[in-house]
Each structure stands twice: as structure tokens, then as C-alpha cells.
Amino acid sequence: xxxxxxxxxLTTAALALLFAAPAVAHAxxxxxTLQQLVDSSTVIVRVSxxxxxxxxxxxxxxxxxxxIVTDTSLTAERAYKxxxxxxxxxxxxxxxxxxxxxxxxxxxKLAAGERAVLFLxxxxxxxxxxxxLRIVGGQVPALGISLMALExxxxxxxRGGLSAAxxxxxxxxxxxxxxxxxxxxxALSANTTYxxxxxxxxxxISPARAASGVGQCVxxxxxxxxxxxxxxxxxxxxxxxxxxxEAAVETWSDTSVVVVVPRNAQAGLVKLxxxxxxxxxxxxxxxxxxxxxxxxxxxxxxxxxxxxxxxxMTGEGAAIRRAMDTWNGSGADFTMLYGGSSQKATLTYDxxxxxxRNGQNDLFFxxxxxxxxxxxxxxxxxxxxxxxxxxxxxxxxMINDAWTWGDGASATYFDVETIALHELGHTVGLxxxxxxxxxVMGAAVKGTPRRALTAYEVEGAxxxxxxxxxxxxxxxxxxxxxxxxxxxxxxxxxxxDINGQALPTQTNVLLxxxxxxxxxxxxxxxxxxxxxxxxxxxxxxxxxxxxxxGDGISPACSFSMVVKPKVKLTVNAPExxxxxxxxxxxxxxxxxxxDASVVFEVWKKYSSRKGYFRYNNYTLLTSKGSFYRKLSLPxxxxxxxxxxxxxxxxxxxxxxxxFKVR
Length: 662
What we know:
7-stranded antiparallel β-sheet, 9-stranded mixed β-sheet, single chain, mainly beta, elongated
């Protein structure tokens, strides 16, 4: 690996920290009412947004950014608490600079020209997305109220008189379908008249459940969508609001819309906006599955060192290890290990004050994370190339000791095991789904401990790390054969259990090319574990997967067979092949797949002894399976060898022809 090929990037799903290192930080944010936002903020200000500029902060020994931050210029329109200069800059982690990127979720992304009410403290924006209330046409869509009503509520909250029934953030939480927990139960239950009934227009979304972050498409069916493309928004997994995350539209018609489920989405009301509409035209309550972050651990395991340093309880390490074991029991091919105790109580910082890697995965309690944050998981991602999705290389998980911690259900503290279970879900590779409180990846409230994964988390873990096959398949003697295109190929396989013992004879084994079953292999009567048959080969390299009773198609049970190409070669009639005059050699190649290449070798016969020596060779591109070459050669006898250009073909896959030049 070259130095230029490797880069470290930080994706932060945490709070608006002023600086961050190249990692992925995922925070557990407690749902906050407006009263809690006001009480936690030192400054509350209405702003208009100017230009944003990303920059690198510090360089490591390879001239890579230690961190990337984005400076956004803001103009203060009105301060509701504290003060800010008329013009000031908000610095948050994230952005792209110098060929590197810092991807940030749950940290507000402010575009030029936007207006918002910001709740700020010394760490940045309070409560992540909850502390950035955008203003659209005099309305605050996240809370479903007008700007004037929000300003009145902030004033009432500052005077300490905002009741649970009057709290607009509590109403938004309830409107998003958040299940009441003891920490916010009064605020959520106070408004009993709020309606979450769907707007008519959408009759179904298929499939019945999709996943976020895996590029899956869904089809929205209904009426009145219009012929011009509008917008579709899914609930945002890192926030509890009414805005949502916009999905990429694939196709749009009056009765059917196909979109890609966006990353960081969660279950809830999917909203469809017709072209030019500022409010949703149709809504549908959709059961979205897991949310995938897009990264893996290359070694499929991670070892944590734990510092049991909270003064609130004893046995916090045991609770965290139970959470690790819960994920280990998901059936996924991934393991979390306990490596021993750690003495760390803060991240490792460089000379610039940015957290950096130390080569060890630590889990500890600490202070100064930020208001509204229960825990944060800094996860470093390494990229091998520009197109590489990246893989995790280190995780440092911090639990905010500013909160009170305990073990079990209580209205006075948060449950350590519940929070650890959530944050370790990020280690597995799953994203937040805050509004779905019944799930492990949902937001946490006091009095509601979680001890088990739901089907959604199990499904996500298995997607990230498919379970190891209960049996494995190896290619039999046919591996040594190079079948010819257009002719059925003999295929034999053997099935073994995980201990290497041949499986007893079962029913037939199906061979697949993609999703299509192309052949049935018959079990040998005399040789248990052997299956054989013939399969059609239609590609230059045919990829097979196999299935047998009780087991689905498994990538672990796959193999490839190289196919010898079928070549027809034509050389000008010998009497026309004159010395030093150009003449044509042409041919066709089957299978004809795209612009495949052929190696065209010209061999000249020795004049004084037997055999040929290589005279020249060329690489030719085929067009729809045809190739053509003009030659100018001296007098003599020649042999032409044509080799298919695909990787894996040997000299035995060559085609020969002979001619003379007079």
C-alpha cells in the first residue's frame, strides 16, 4: 500500500464538538424538550447562514489532516439568551479538504441562505440536530409551529413557566411516535389531542420493510403524485423531528414513485411532496428495518479495554461485558472481546487539541462531552483507495459521567447496559434510529432498560457480517478442466461440514448463476458427499453458487470456472500473402462480451530446425466478438496464436492457425 493510497476519515454522529479527529463518532443523544434545550444553553440566537468553508486542522507524519472542520459564517438576527457578535463563525467537525473527507451526522449542516434558531453552549450546538431549529417561511417545521410561537415558548421557558402541555418539542416527539419514558413521560403524555393520522394518497410502500444505508429501492404506490418529480422524505435516524431526510428519486409518475432509501433513516411517517409543494401531500407510516453505516471491521472482531471509573455504581464493567455478549449472540460472524482493564479517562490528543488514535480500543467514563449526550463512540475509518468504502480500525467509546448511572430500571439514573448495547451497535456498523425507542438503536430514556436485540438489530448484524456457512463446498476434479464455450461442462463438487467431514448424501444440489438455477447436481450413490452433473457455460468466467436442503445460497459456497473461448480465425489465401505486403488476419471470438481483448501472437518457423519462435505479439480489442489485424511479414512459415484476454485463461485456452508468406 502506498502512502497516497491510504487515508483516515472521521465520520461524527455526535454533537457539535468544536474539533474532531479522523474518526467516526456516533453519539447517544437523549430526547430533549424545549425547556431542557433552553436550560442547557448559554446562548440562544436566531441566525442567517452565510458561506461555509472546510479546512484541515493539523497534519500527521504523512501530511494527512488530523481533523477536518467546517467554518460557517453566521449573522445574528436576534438573541434570546446570552449574546453573540453581529457576525460570528460556528466551527463544527466535517467537510472535505485536500482530498480527504470528514463525514458528519447528527451535527447540524447549515447551507448558505438558511435561517435557524441555534441553542449553543461551550461545546457547540446543544443536543445535536435538536438544537438547530430551521425557519422556513416564518414556520419552524421541526416543531410544527410558527417562529412567533417558538419565540413565545422560549421566553416562557426562560421564565421557568413552560408546562409540559405547552412544550412544542414534547409535542413533536409525540408526533414522531416516540414511546413515553419516565424521563419525558409527563411532557409526552400531556398533549393527548395531537393526531398522527396519515395524509391520504399513498396506498402502499413495497417491499413491506426495507433497510437504510444499503442502497435499497422502495416503490410508493397511490394517486395524485403528479407527473413532475417532487420530493420524498424519510424520518431521520439521528433526530426526532418533522423534517426528515430526502430520498433520491429513481422514477416518478402520478401513481407510482421509486426512491432509494436514504442513509440514516428510521421507521415512521414517510412524506411525499408533489412538485413545488412546501407541505407534504401524502404520508405513510412505514416500518423501516436497520440502518447501516457502510463500514466493517476487516478482522471481524474488536477487543475493548474497559475503565470502570464511574463513582455512581459498582459492576459497570460487568454490565458492559454483558452488552458485548448480547451482540456476540446475534449469529453474525463478528466478535467483541474483553481485553482487560484500561486506565484511560479521556481520549488521546495531539498538539492541536484533536483526539487521535492510540492503537487500542478503550471504553471509559468521562466528562465534557456535551449537553444532552449520554455516550459517544469515536470510530476511526481507514480507506485503501478513493472508491474503497473503508473499514474500522479503532474505537474509543466514552460514556458521559455528567449523568447518573446505574444497573436496571430507575427513574433516577440511566442504565449502563442499555447505553453500552446501543453504542456497541455502532461498533457493529449500525446507525441510530432515535424515534424507535423499542429498539436497541433507538434513543434511551430512564426507567426502560434494554437487555436483548430486536429482530432489526439481528438482521443488521447479519447483513454486516453474514454468518459463517454451516457447511462448505469445494470444487471436484472438474476444477482442472477448461470447458469450451457453448458446450455443457461437467461439474463435480464435494460438501463438508465445518469440521472437514464429508456430508452424508442428501437430495440434489442446485447450481445458480446469479439468481437463476442452471443445473441440478446428482448425489453419488457410492461416494458420499460427492455431487456431479453438467452445467451450461455462457460466459468467459462462470460464477456458481450452490444450495442444498436447509441452507440458502451462501457466498461462502461459491466457485468459478474459466471457459475456453471459441475462436474462428481467417487468414488471406496463401497465394495472396506476399513478402512485405500487408494482408489481413481476422476472426471472431465467442462469447462476445463487450470490448474484450485478445492476445494475438505471431510465431515464425525456424529455417534450420524444428519449431517456431515468437516473432511479434499484439493486443487487440474485439468489437461485438470480432477482431482484425493487418500484417506485413517477410517470407516464411508462420503460426498465429490467439489467447483470450480475460484473467485466468492459460495457454491451454489458446487457438492456433498456420499460414505462409511467399
